[in-house]
Amino acid sequence: MNRRTTLRTLVAAALLAAMPAFAAVDVAGVKFDDSITVAGQPLKLNGAGVRTKVIFKVYAAGLYLTDKKTTVAEVLAVPGPRRVAITMLREVSSDDFGKAFLDGLNANTSKEERNKILPQITKFGEVFAQTPALKKGDQLSLDWTPNEGTQCYLNGKKLGELMPDQAFYNAVLRIWLGDKPVDSSLKPALLGEK
């Protein structure tokens, strides 16, 4: 190998090392990309974990934010888009998923907060009524886009209407991050603690 070829090889290696890595985090066999794009803005994986109920793994969830945050207050205050990405690890009826959603929301919000976002809670409930069940491998995304609202996607297809209030999205986040999270081991995982 001559000097010029060696120099080109070293320069190419240095450039590759300087490029951002797009590695994936594996959670229970589900891959969460380190970064994604929502509403044209890059988001970073804040954390990911598994929701278990009794001994059953129900779904893997990842939280994406513009910047990594380690406290609930910081997550709820983040400007810009956000995403909660869920991949089902078992089949769950939409009735059961909707009930778990409402139970988590009720446990982590006050009656006054729920009354303010009641129309959006109702719309969100209608989203689950459109699908008889969430099957193993289904991917559910809940995106918040500033000046637009919350949009739900199932396997990349829009579900339901846009829900405009950020208070609604924050109430949904508290299902996993609130004082009474649906899974006490998932909360620190989404906050990047493990």
TrEMBL record:
UniProt KW keywords: Lipoprotein, Membrane, Signal, Transmembrane
Pfam families per record: Chalcone_3 (PF16036)
Domain Chalcone isomerase: 24-192
Keyword Transmembrane helix: no
GO molecular function: intramolecular lyase activity
Residues in the signal sequence: 1-23
Entry superkingdom: Bacteria
Keyword hit for Ion transport: no
Protein name: Lipoprotein transmembrane
Natural source organism: Duganella radicis
